[in-house]
Amino acid sequence: MLGYLSHLETGQTNQPLYLFPMCPHFHHPPPGNPLASTSCPSVCLLPPPLSEMKEKNPWHTPVTIILTVIGVIAIVTLVTVAVLQNKPIQQKYKYGIVLDAGSSHTAVYIYEWPAEKDNNTGRVQQKYSCKVKGKGISSYADEPQKAGESLRECMFEAKKQVPKNRHGETPLYLGATAGMRLLNLDDSSASNKVFQAVEEALQRFPFSFQGARILSGQEEGAFGWVTINYLSDRLKQGLETTGALDLGGASTQISFVSDSYNGLESPKNSVNFRLYGNDYHVYTHSFLCYGKDQALGLALAHQTKSGPRTITDPCFHPGYTQTKNYSILYDSPCVSERKPQEAPLSFTLSGSGNFTKCHEVIKSVFDFTSCNYSRCSFNGVFQPTPQGSFGAFSAYYFVMKFLNLTDTSTSIEVVREKLMEYCATPWTKIVKQHPKVDQKYLSEYCFSGTYILTLLIEGYNFTSETYSKIEFIKKIKGSDAGWTLGYMLNLTNMIPAEAPDSPLLPHAGYVSIVTIIAILLFALFILSLRPVWPTCSKQPQIV
Ligand SMILES: Nc1nc2c(ncn2[C@@H]2O[C@H](COP(=O)(O)OP(=O)(O)OP(=O)(O)O)[C@@H](O)[C@H]2O)c(=O)[nH]1
């Protein structure tokens, strides 16, 4: 038989090298007689000059050609099926809507997750959020109808955001937090009317309305913890969890896992979860009246207990003045009992911008003396020592971001110094520096920054070391940090108690393995046909 002819030049002899695929090695015909046989048992004699002959490829038999074609078709079919069968289909989404009816305002959040991964494996993420104009629903106690109306604009937007064919199946929840907790304490009938109005308003939308309710402080804290750990994938991967610090307008929550807390001491602070096959004993506490707006009210109440007409408030910038109404300030159940017996209608507040004095005023709103447990935060509330990393969101983030204090590697002493300098800055200068910032927020950053530091260090007992493990966050991977996502995940059973079975291989790995196996099988098949392989003949076939 005759193999392919190659005219590669060999280095030493400068003779042509003849390659015969069926011969075990190359060989050089003896000089002068290129047709002489060499050591290859199936040696192929040199053919006459190429121009004189036409090779007949021994593989070109009908059987080998048919087998090769069948083999190639089989491989292509196998790989195509593997690719198509296991290919991620074009994503379709399902949706869930949660309204966070907070004390200061209401926000609408739309979440989405892959429809085909409904069984707890798809990642839920925030698709859209809308801040409802105006104040929180609790501020509509005197005109409940308006509470419902206030939600309409954002809800119409939500209708546009969710595809029409998903409207009917999209669950819609409203959770109210500390503002409604306070209204409910103060006037439960007014609170019911507000709920009635918002329920009627929400039922008019084509979503699957699941009801409106007040979350307990414990739920608010625990679902905030779930949210941030879910978004950072710590739950699914069974990693060490992050604590959650949430500072609202009317309440504040702290939630974390501590090695020293198993729920036996102060069981009311314990929330247990089994998520993705792991058990979590979470410590959580919500301080009603210690959100930043109510805390400001507590601080003002402390300074106006004798019913003065003017106060010099160290938590406001020098040159800042404001007239405040006594009945509005003391309207909140957080301070109503402390209302001075005799007080004028209003008082004038003049800022002095003194961080040290502001810190003293703020400390006076905490009770650090009573504790019936092994350890307490404040107001006699049990709390283990903060442990691990923490995510601090809501007003923690707004305030620290504005003050440029989100870098917690900055020592607490430096944070104090910066606050000292900031508080002492005259109000006119502050306004000039931030002409676009809402003056209500702007005027309160000195108080809020000082309050946050006091709450964290003296209140929750963060030390220089543990303070550096706090991260001030607004969003994680595009979704807002807050209780709403955790709440929805819980109500829709989107976090399984046990770890779901995951596919052994990702799509690409699966396709690669099928391809390799197909090729190996084909090679094996060809080898198995060895008996019918064409062999080198002693005589070249000249056609
Ligand atoms: N500086 C600043 N403050 C904000 C902003 N949005 C909200 N706040 C304030 O931050 C505080 C906390 O706001 P939220 O997290 O919405 O709290 P909330 O849900 O109204 O309050 P709770 O019912 O106590 O949970 C409130 O005092 C708000 O007035 C913002 O964009 N910038």
Automatic annotation (TrEMBL):
<keyword id="KW-0378">Hydrolase</keyword>
<dbReference type="GO" id="GO:0005524">
    <property type="term" value="F:ATP binding"/>
</dbReference>
<keyword id="KW-1133">Transmembrane helix</keyword>
<keyword id="KW-0812">Transmembrane</keyword>
<protein>
    <recommendedName>
        <fullName>Ectonucleoside triphosphate diphosphohydrolase 1</fullName>
        <ecNumber>3.6.1.5</ecNumber>
    </recommendedName>
</protein>
<feature type="transmembrane region" description="Helical">
    <location>
        <begin position="63"/>
        <end position="84"/>
    </location>
</feature>
<comment type="subunit">
    <text>Homodimer; disulfide-linked.</text>
</comment>
<dbReference type="GO" id="GO:0009134">
    <property type="term" value="P:nucleoside diphosphate catabolic process"/>
</dbReference>
<dbReference type="GO" id="GO:0017111">
    <property type="term" value="F:ribonucleoside triphosphate phosphatase activity"/>
</dbReference>
<feature type="transmembrane region" description="Helical">
    <location>
        <begin position="508"/>
        <end position="529"/>
    </location>
</feature>
<keyword id="KW-0325">Glycoprotein</keyword>
<keyword id="KW-1015">Disulfide bond</keyword>
<comment type="similarity">
    <text>Belongs to the GDA1/CD39 NTPase family.</text>
</comment>
<keyword id="KW-0547">Nucleotide-binding</keyword>
<dbReference type="GO" id="GO:0005901">
    <property type="term" value="C:caveola"/>
</dbReference>
<dbReference type="GO" id="GO:0004382">
    <property type="term" value="F:GDP phosphatase activity"/>
</dbReference>
<keyword id="KW-0106">Calcium</keyword>
<feature type="transmembrane region" description="Helical">
    <location>
        <begin position="442"/>
        <end position="462"/>
    </location>
</feature>
<dbReference type="GO" id="GO:0045134">
    <property type="term" value="F:UDP phosphatase activity"/>
</dbReference>
<feature type="active site" description="Proton acceptor">
    <location>
        <position position="220"/>
    </location>
</feature>
<keyword id="KW-0067">ATP-binding</keyword>
<keyword id="KW-0460">Magnesium</keyword>
<dbReference type="Pfam" id="PF01150">
    <property type="entry name" value="GDA1_CD39"/>
</dbReference>
<feature type="binding site">
    <location>
        <begin position="249"/>
        <end position="253"/>
    </location>
    <ligand>
        <name>ATP</name>
    </ligand>
</feature>
<comment type="function">
    <text>Catalyzes the hydrolysis of both di- and triphosphate nucleotides (NDPs and NTPs) and hydrolyze NTPs to nucleotide monophosphates (NMPs) in two distinct successive phosphate-releasing steps, with NDPs as intermediates and participates in the regulation of extracellular levels of nucleotides. By hydrolyzing proinflammatory ATP and platelet-activating ADP to AMP, it blocks platelet aggregation and supports blood flow.</text>
</comment>
<keyword id="KW-0472">Membrane</keyword>
<dbReference type="InterPro" id="IPR000407">
    <property type="entry name" value="GDA1_CD39_NTPase"/>
</dbReference>
<dbReference type="GO" id="GO:0004050">
    <property type="term" value="F:apyrase activity"/>
</dbReference>
